[in-house]
Design a protein that fits this description.
- The complex is a heterodimer.
- Chain A is α+β, with helices and mostly antiparallel strands.
- Chain A has five domains: 204 residues, Heat Shock Protein 90, CATH 3.30.565.10; 66 residues, Helicase, Ruva Protein, domain 3 (Orthogonal Bundle), CATH 1.10.8.50; 106 residues, no CATH class; 141 residues, 2-Layer Sandwich (Ribosomal Protein S5, domain 2), CATH 3.30.230; 48 residues.
- Chain A has 18 helices and 17 strands.
- An eight-stranded mixed sheet of chain A has the order 5-4-3-6-2-1-7-8. In chain A, strands 12, 13, 14, 15, 16 and 17 form a six-stranded mixed sheet that branches. A three-stranded antiparallel sheet of chain A has the order 9-10-11.
- In chain A, a hairpin with a 5-residue loop joins strand 7 and strand 8.
- By secondary structure, chain B is of the alpha/beta class.
- Chain B folds into two domains: 141 residues, Arc Repressor Mutant, subunit A; 172 residues, Dna Topoisomerase Vi A Subunit, Chain: A, domain 2.
- Chain B has a six-stranded mixed sheet, with helices on both faces. In chain B, strands 1-12-9-10 form a four-stranded antiparallel sheet. In chain B, strands 2-5 form a two-stranded antiparallel ribbon.
- The longest helix of chain B has 25 residues.
- The two termini of chain B are 26 Å apart.
- Classes of the chains: A alpha+beta, B alpha/beta.
- The interface between A and B is medium-sized, with 29 and 31 residues.
C-alpha cells in the first residue's frame, strides 16, 4: 500500500500552481492582466485619498530584436499616496497581504493581482521587482526584491533612499509577454479605462515608443467608496463565525503594557489601593475601554493591586459555576474564587466571556438592522434575543445563518458605500470620446441582489464621429473595463434582446452603449472577472436603464427622421419631376415642356402619408 | 394553299399602340401643366386578381387595379421609371428599332433612370404591358431566349430595310430564330396542314432530318422548353391566321404536360395579355399512360416533380378530362420519361411509330 504524503503549501505556492485562475495562463493574457492589476491598484489608491490620478504606463522590450513572446519591462507610475516603506516588502513580496479585505466597492479584490504579476514575472524571467515609493513627500524608498515562493515572504536585494518632492508609487517588473498579440487589448483597456475614469490623466507608452495620452476631462472626483457593515442577506455561516470570534472579547493578557494602559485610562499617577482604583474606575466607567473594564472587574473579584496582578495568570472564567480560576506564579498553585452575581462587575465579565446578546450583535454588526427588526428576526428564527452569541453551538450558528438569509423584513442594503461615476462625468467622458450627434446618460437608483447593493449607470451615444459599424457596447464594472468573454455577459444579453427597430434604429447604426455596474460584489461568472452573470435583479435594472435611454434616442431619431424626410422629399421631386416632364413632352408630341415648378414645390411640402 | 386572312394586322397594332402612348403622354403633360400629380392605373397582377376565364379558355386579370401616383413619395421613382419606359417604347416603335429585356435595363442609365437590377426593369415592362394591355413584343422588346421554326411558310418582313422582302422558312435546315423580325413579319403563304411544337432542340433537328415536315405536311416549332411569348404568339397566328391545327410533343413528365397547357391556355404570368394562346392546340404526348403503353425507359420523379403535380391539381384547368387523368397517373407512377426514351427502340422510332399513332389517336379528342 502506498502512503500518501500530505504537506501544507504557502499561498504563494498555491497561486504559482494555479496561476491560470488569476488570468496568467499565457504570455498574451499575462501581459494584459499585469497591466490591469498595476493600473487598477494605482487608480484605487488615488481614489481612496481623493487625489486626481496621473498614471504613466510603459511597456518596453528588453531586446526589441527578438520575436514574441519575449521579455518586457512593465512600469506603472502614479501620483497617489505612496506606501509606507515599512509595508512595502510585505505588500509586494507576499501573497494575500492587502488592504482590501473590507466590504466596499473596489476595482481589484484582496490586492492579489499585483503580487501575482510580480510572481509571474519572477517565474518567467527570474528578475526582481523594483518598487519606488514616496509617502511623505520627502523621501523616496527604492526596493529591489524577489519573492520566496515556498516561504511566502520577500527577499530584499537592495533598499536605497533618496530625497523626493512628491508622493507616488512606481512599480516595475520584467516578465515574459506577447505584445504583438496583447497590444490591441491593452490599448483598448487604456482607452476604455480613460473613458470611465474621466478625472484621471493616463499616458501609455508602447514598445515602439508611441504614446497614447488621455487628458483629464473632469476635475471633480466622485466620492470615494466607503467600507460598510455586511447586510444580513449577504452572509454565510463562515462569515458569521468570523464575526462572532472578533466580537467575543478575550480576557486580555495582563502584562506591563496592559497595566500601563489601565493606569493611563484611569489617570493614575501614584500607586493606589485596590479600593481606590475601583472608585476611580466607577467614576469614569463610561469613558474607559472594554479591556480596561475587564481588568478592573478581575481586580475587584480578586481584590488585588497591580503588583498582585503581575504575579498571576487568569486561567478560566466559568460563568455557569460562577467561579474565576487563576495561577499564582509566586505560590505555584491554582486558586479558585467565587463570583458574586450581584456585583456590578459580574455582568462585565459575563458579557466579555460570552460576547454580546444576539440582539446587540445584530444591531451592532449589520447594516440597517435596528432593535425592532432584530427582535422580529429573533422571533422569526426562534432565538431568544438575549442569547449570548459566544455560547452558540454549531447547529445554532447554521440555524442563525439560514434565518438571516430567509428573513424578508430586513431593509434593502445600504448603497451609500457605492461610488458610481455620476451622470455628469459619464456624460462628459462620452461627449469627449465619441463627439456624438446625440447622447444621454442615466444613473439608476440603487438596488440589491443577495444582500449586495449595486447601482447601474448607463450612457448611449449616436452619430457624430461614431463610425456606422453597428452597435458597440462598452462594459464596465466598478470602473474597470471588461474586455474578454463578451458573448456570455448579461449586458450584452440585454442589448441583444432589445428590438432596436422599435427605437428607429436600423442596419449597422453608429451607436455606442456604455454600461457601468457598481457593487460591493460584482457577480462575475468566472474567476477571470470579465463577464457579469445574469442575476434577475441586475438584469431588471440594466433593462430599465437601456429602455429609458433607447426611448430618448427614439425621440431624437424621430425628430431627425422628420427633418431628413422633408429634405429627401424635396430632393426626390426636384430630381424626378423634370424627368417626367421631359418624357411626357415627347410622348404627347409637344415642343415646349409643361410648367412643372408648382408641382415640385407641392411635392416637397406634402406630409408623409402612410 | 392558304392565304393570310387578316391583312396588315401588324400595321394596325402599331397604330393602336402609338395612339395609346400618345394619350398617356398628353394626360401626364396636362397634369404637370395644371400643377396636379399624374398617375398610372395598373391592373393588379396579384394572385387574388388572376382568374381563369372558361369562355376564352385562359387566365385573365380580374377588375382590381392599383394606382401608381407621383404624389406618393415611395412610388415617385417607379412612376418615373414607367413614364420613361413609355417614352422609350414610343421611340422604339416609331423608329422601328428592337431591344431586349437586358438592353432596356442598360438603356435606362443614359436617362438618369436608375433601376437597381434587371428584375426591377423587367417588372416595369410588365407594368406597361398591363397599362396598355399589349405584350412587350409589340413594344419591340424581346427576351434573350429564342426558339426556332422550320417548314414551308412564306413570310414578308415589316422591319425597316426589309419591308416587303419575302422568305421561305424551309430553306435552312437549322431552322429560323423566332426573333423580332420574324415576330413582326406578315404570314403570307404555306402548304403545310399542321404545326408540330416540340419541346427540345435535339428532336427538332431529328424531325427536320427525318423530313417530318414533308411526311406530315407540317411546320415544326422548337419551343426550347417553356415556350417564350413570341413563340406562343407565332403559334397562335399560325392557328388563327393560317388556319393550321397545332399539336404539342413534350417530355413525359408534369413539366411537359404544363408546357402543352401554357401553349393552349396561357400562363398566370401573362394573365394581363391576350393573343398568346391557342385554345384548340392538342397535347399529343408523352402522356403518363404512354409510358406504360410504349414500355418507355423511365427515371424516378424528384420531390419537386411530385410537389409540382400537387400544385397543378389545384389549377382549374386540370380539373377534368385527360389533363386530370394524366396527372393522376403520373402521381401513381412516380416515374417520368423523356422524349429521347423512344431511342431505345431505334432513332427513328418516334417519327416512324409514335408520332403517326398519336396523330391518329388525336383525331378522336
Amino acid at each position: 500500500m502506498s502512503k500518501e504524503v500530505f504537506s501544507q503549501i504557502s499561498p504563494s505556492e498555491f497561486f504559482y500552481r494555479n496561476r491560470d485562475l488569476a488570468g496568467f495562463s499565457n504570455p498574451t493574457r499575462s501581459l494584459y492582466t499585469s497591466v490591469r492589476e498595476f493600473v487598477e491598484n494605482a487608480l484605487d489608491a488615488c481614489d481612496q485619498k481623493k487625489m486626481l490620478p496621473d498614471i504613466h504606463l510603459s511597456i518596453k522590450a528588453v531586446d526589441p530584436e527578438k520575436a514574441d513572446p519575449k521579455h518586457y519591462i512593465l512600469t506603472v507610475k502614479d501620483n497617489g499616496p505612496g506606501i509606507d516603506p515599512e509595508h512595502i516588502p510585505l505588500a509586494f513580496g507576499t501573497v494575500l497581504y492587502g488592504s482590501k479585505f473590507g466590504l466596499k466597492q473596489a476595482r481589484g479584490m484582496f490586492g492579489l493581482g499585483a503580487t501575482m504579476a510580480i510572481l509571474y514575472g519572477q517565474i518567467t524571467t527570474n528578475k526582481p521587482v523594483t518598487v519606488k515609493s514616496c509617502s511623505d513627500g520627502k523621501t523616496i524608498d527604492e526596493f529591489v526584491m524577489l519573492l520566496d515562493i515556498q516561504k511566502n515572504k520577500p527577499v530584499i536585494q537592495k533598499h536605497t533612499t533618496k530625497e523626493g518632492s512628491k508622493t507616488g508609487l512606481a512599480v516595475s517588473i520584467v516578465l515574459e509577454g506577447d505584445y504583438s498579440k496583447a497590444g490591441s487589448k491593452i490599448r483598448d483597456y487604456v482607452y476604455q479605462t480613460s473613458l470611465i475614469t474621466p478625472y484621471a490623466s493616463i499616458t501609455f507608452e508602447d514598445p515602439s515608443g508611441e504614446k497614447f495620452h488621455y487628458a483629464r476631462i473632469v476635475k471633480d472626483m466622485p466620492r470615494p467608496p466607503t467600507v460598510i457593515k455586511p447586510h444580513p442577506h449577504g452572509i454565510d455561516v463562515e462569515t458569521i463565525r468570523r464575526m462572532i470570534t472578533d466580537t467575543h472579547y478575550q480576557i486580555p493578557t495582563i502584562d506591563n503594557k496592559m497595566i500601563d494602559k489601565v493606569k493611563k485610562e484611569l489617570s493614575l499617577k501614584k500607586n493606589l489601593s485596590p479600593k481606590e482604583i475601583l472608585e476611580r474606575a466607577q467614576k469614569r466607567w463610561s469613558d474607559i475601554s472594554r479591556p480596561v473594564r475587564t481588568v478592573v472587574s478581575v481586580m475587584s473579584f480578586l481584590n488585588i493591586d497591580f503588583e498582585g496582578l503581575k504575579k498571576i495568570r487568569i486561567d478560566d472564567i466559568d460563568i455557569a459555576n460562577k467561579t474565576i480560576t487563576y495561577w499564582d506564579f509566586g505560590e505555584s498553585t491554582t486558586h479558585a474564587v467565587e463570583l458574586d452575581p450581584e456585583s456590578p462587575y459580574y455582568k462585565q465579565l459575563a458579557s466579555t466571556v460570552q460576547g454580546d446578546t444576539l440582539l446587540t450583535f445584530l444591531t451592532k454588526r449589520f447594516q440597517r438592522v435596528g432593535p425592532t427588526t432584530a427582535e422580529k428576526f429573533c422571533e422569526f428564527a426562534k432565538f431568544k434575543p438575549d442569547k449570548r452569541i459566544g455560547s452558540m453551538t454549531n447547529e445554532e450558528l447554521v440555524k442563525l445563518a439560514d434565518g438571516l438569509q430567509k428573513f424578508e423584513e430586513f431593509l434593502a442594503p445600504d448603497p451609500s458605500c457605492l461610488a458610481p461615476l455620476g451622470e455628469e462625468p459619464l456624460s462628459k467622458g462620452i461627449m469627449k470620446f465619441f463627439n456624438p450627434e446625440f447622447a444621454a446618460v442615466w444613473q439608476r437608483n440603487a438596488s440589491a441582489y443577495s444582500g449586495f447593493p449595486f447601482v447601474v449607470e448607463m450612457g448611449i451615444a449616436y452619430g457624430g464621429d461614431i463610425p456606422p459599424n453597428g452597435l458597440k457596447v462598452y462594459r464596465f464594472a466598478n470602473r474597470i473595463p471588461l474586455l474578454y468573454d463578451e458573448g456570455s455577459d448579461v449586458v450584452l444579453k440585454i442589448v441583444n434582446e432589445t428590438e432596436w427597430s422599435r427605437y428607429k434604429i436600423k442596419g449597422d447604426p453608429p451607436l455606442v452603449i456604455v454600461s457601468h455596474i457598481c457593487s460591493t460584489r460584482i457577480p462575475y461568472k468566472t474567476v477571470g472577472k470579465e463577464n457579469v452573470a445574469d442575476r434577475p435583479e441586475l438584469e431588471r435594472e440594466l433593462k430599465n436603464a437601456l429602455q429609458y435611454l433607447a426611448r430618448k434616442l427614439a425621440v431624437h431619431m424621430s425628430r431627425q427622421g422628420a427633418a431628413d424626410m422633408a429634405k429627401k422629399r424635396a430632393n426626390l421631386y426636384s430630381k424626378y419631376v423634370p424627368l417626367i416632364a421631359q418624357f411626357a413632352t415627347e410622348l404627347a408630341g409637344k415642343k415646349k415642356e409643361p410648367n412643372y415648378n408648382q408641382l415640385i414645390r407641392m411635392g416637397s411640402e406634402i406630409e408623409e402619408q402612410v | 394553299m392558304k392565304n393570310k386572312s387578316n391583312a396588315k394586322t401588324a400595321e394596325t397594332r402599331k397604330k393602336r399602340l402609338l395612339s395609346l402612348l400618345e394619350q398617356q403622354g398628353i394626360n401626364i403633360y396636362d397634369h404637370l401643366d395644371k400643377g396636379k400629380f399624374p398617375q398610372f392605373v395598373i391592373p393588379s397582377r396579384s394572385v387574388s386578381n388572376i382568374v381563369y376565364d372558361k369562355k376564352i379558355r385562359q387566365y385573365i386579370l380580374g377588375s382590381a387595379s392599383a394606382v401608381r401616383s407621383s404624389r406618393n413619395m415611395s412610388q415617385l421613382r417607379s412612376y418615373t421609371q414607367l413614364a420613361w419606359l413609355a417614352f422609350f417604347v414610343n421611340r422604339l416603335v416609331r423608329e422601328g428599332k428592337s431591344s431586349t429585356l437586358r438592353d432596356i435595363y442598360y438603356s435606362s442609365q443614359a436617362f438618369s433612370i436608375d433601376f437597381e437590377d434587371q428584375p426591377e426593369s423587367d417588372n416595369i415592362i410588365v407594368d406597361l404591358e398591363a397599362v396598355l394591355t399589349s405584350p412587350r413584343e409589340e413594344f419591340h422588346i424581346f427576351p434573350e431566349e429564342r426558339s426556332s421554326v422550320f417548314g414551308d411558310l412564306t413570310i414578308e418582313y415589316t422591319v425597316p430595310g426589309y419591308e416587303g422582302k419575302r422568305m421561305n422558312l424551309s430553306d435552312h435546315p437549322d431552322g429560323y430564330l423566332i426573333g423580332p423580325s420574324l415576330s413582326s413579319a406578315e404570314l403570307v403563304d404555306t402548304s403545310a396542314e399542321l404545326v408540330i411544337a416540340i419541346e427540345k432542340g435535339g428532336l427538332f433537328t431529328r424531325f427536320v432530318e427525318e423530313k417530318v415536315h414533308k411526311k406530315f405536311k407540317a411546320i415544326i416549332v422548337d419551343t426550347a422548353g417553356q415556350a417564350p411569348r413570341s413563340t406562343r404568339n407565332l403559334l397562335r397566328r399560325l392557328n388563327s391566321e393560317m388556319g393550321l391545327p397545332v399539336v404539342i410533343l413534350a417530355d413525359g413528365d408534369v413539366y411537359g404536360e404544363h408546357i402543352a397547357m401554357v401553349i393552349k391556355s396561357g400562363s398566370a404570368n401573362a394573365a394581363h395579355l391576350r393573343e398568346l394562346t391557342v385554345p384548340d392546340a392538342k397535347w399529343l404526348g408523352v402522356w403518363a399512360t404512354d409510358i406504360e403503353k410504349y414500355k418507355l425507359p423511365t427515371i424516378p420523379m424528384t420531390e419537386s416533380d411530385i410537389k409540382r403535380i400537387y400544385d397543378l391539381q389545384k389549377d382549374p384547368r386540370y380539373q377534368e378530362g385527360n389533363w386530370k387523368k394524366q396527372l393522376e397517373v403520373f402521381l401513381k407512377l412516380k416515374r417520368k420519361a423523356e422524349l429521347e426514351a423512344f431511342s431505345k427502340y431505334g432513332l427513328t422510332n418516334i417519327t416512324d411509330k409514335y408520332l403517326p399513332a398519336k396523330l391518329e389517336e388525336s383525331k378522336s379528342f
